[in-house]
# Entry
Amino acid sequence: MSLTADDRIEIQELCAKYYVSTDEKDVDSFMDCWVDDDDILFESAFGNFKGRREIRAFEDEHVHRGMAIGKRHLLSNMFIADGKSKNQAHVTSYLTVVEVVDVPVIVATAIYRNSVVEKTSKGWKFRFRSMEVDPGFQKLMAGKT
# Structure
C-alpha cells in the first residue's frame, strides 16, 4: 500500500507534536503521540523504556528535571516509507537539540531511524522509536568536551 498525501501530512504533524510537546513540557500531549496499548518501546541515549508507564515516567523526568530543560528539539530531513501493513509506516528523521536559555549552541544531534507509526482510530501514533545519538553527544555525556 502506498501512503496518501494526507497520511504523510498527518505523520509529519505527529513528529512535530512529539518534539513540541517535549519542549513545552506537556507530558500528556507527548503520550498522546503513542498508540494506546502497552506494546510500545522507546530506545534512547538515556535508556530503553517499554510500555506507557515507563515512557511517561521518563518523559516527565526528562522535561521537568532532566536534560531537556532549557533545550529546543528541531526536526529535519524526515523520510516516510510504507510499512509492513496498510496501517503502518516507517519514519526516519534527524534531531538537533539547541540550548535556548543560555547562549544558543547545538547540544546534540541524533537520528531516529525507522520509527514505526500506526494508523489508529485517533490518527497516526508511534509504536516504536529508536534514537541513535551522534558521537559528539556521547562526549558531552562523558564530560569530554
